[in-house]
Amino acid sequence: MGFIVTEGMEFISGWGGKWPAPAKLNLMLRITGRREDGYHLLQTVFQMLDLCDWLAFRPVADGSVSLLSPIPGVPEQEDLTVRAANLLKLHTGCEAGVCIEIEKKLPMGGGLGGGSSDAATTLVVLNRLWGLRLPKQELMALGLRLGADVPVFVFGHAAWGEGVGEELQPIMLPEQWFVIIKPDCHVNTKEIFCSEGLTRDSKVIKMSDFLAGEESNDCTEEVCKMYPRVRDAMNALSVYAGARLTGTGACVFAQFPSKEEAEVVFQALKNEWLVFLAKGLNESPLYKKLEQE
Ligand SMILES: C[C@](O)(CO)[C@H](O)COP(=O)(O)OP(=O)(O)OC[C@H]1O[C@@H](n2ccc(N)nc2=O)[C@H](O)[C@@H]1O
Ligand SMILES: Nc1ncnc2c1ncn2[C@@H]1O[C@H](COP(=O)(O)OP(=O)(O)OP(=O)(O)O)[C@@H](O)[C@H]1O
């Protein structure tokens, strides 16, 4: 059941070939308050991974936005890539059209931010393809309208995040290796943020506290209580190294200084769990590719 990251395969001949939409991990997640609209104030640390969805964009003449093959369970017009493209058209008055293909590699509902990253890649690539020249800050603000995790993927760098996750400062982190278990359950982010027992009054800390080892995730206890399979995954990974939850789950992860050390744990878990081996990245592969175009 294990899954080693491999390069995406060629699938359609879209503009610029295929574009990465990397996963993220929340290396720490503190909930420090709640806004009047119900959204939670967070302190978090985002790092991208070399584990990606792959997207292709084919210009179409009739001004429509469509998906070549919608993701099962997600209606085409609700897909975050379609919503991102339509939002960009509405915001700029651009009359161009696009057909999008998604090669889905990231598990959904896993706290790896796949849908958000797909949306961010769509905003960044179409901004270039359609010659819109919107600055990054404006794309991030548009992205926030699609979800709290979209801005960091537009930002494109490992980041210290505050607000609802949209106030971002770049951070340089060691590019370690991660073993990530995706338990066979789908955690609903909204359900976790609505749950009674969630810690919402964590002390505000500084970036230096995180760097000194403060790496907790305030959602862990509640998610493990509501989703026993997440607790099982934490226990399975804890045998080898400190296990943490990303976002609101369901994925749990442990970090290792070398690929070799991570590989040993990956091999030990892969028969029983859906497990990924991935490298932490400070710079998003999306921008690396954009620079090459
Ligand atoms: C848990 C994280 O993944 C950490 O990075 C994000 O905060 C969640 O980001 P996301 O999946 O893009 O979430 P959204 O689609 O914006 O929000 C889903 C639901 O989660 C709740 N939500 C989300 C983010 C936040 N800071 N406070 C919240 O209370 C809201 O009820 C919202 O309706
Ligand atoms: N392109 C897309 N890819 C994945 N999910 C999408 C997409 N478009 C819409 N969705 C919806 O978004 C939901 C959340 O998917 P996603 O993969 O982003 O979860 P997640 O990793 O838990 O996100 P987060 O870490 O941001 O909470 C899915 O269950 C699906 O209904």
From TrEMBL:
Its EC number is 2.7.1.148. Residues 220-272 form the GHMP kinase C-terminal domain. It catalyses: 4-CDP-2-C-methyl-D-erythritol + ATP = 4-CDP-2-C-methyl-D-erythritol 2-phosphate + ADP + H(+). One of its GO terms (molecular function) is 4-(cytidine 5'-diphospho)-2-C-methyl-D-erythritol kinase activity. Pathway: Isoprenoid biosynthesis; isopentenyl diphosphate biosynthesis via DXP pathway; isopentenyl diphosphate from 1-deoxy-D-xylulose 5-phosphate: step 3/6. It holds the Pfam family GHMP_kinases_N. Belongs to the GHMP kinase family. IspE subfamily. This is 4-diphosphocytidyl-2-C-methyl-D-erythritol kinase. It comes from Methylomonas rivi.
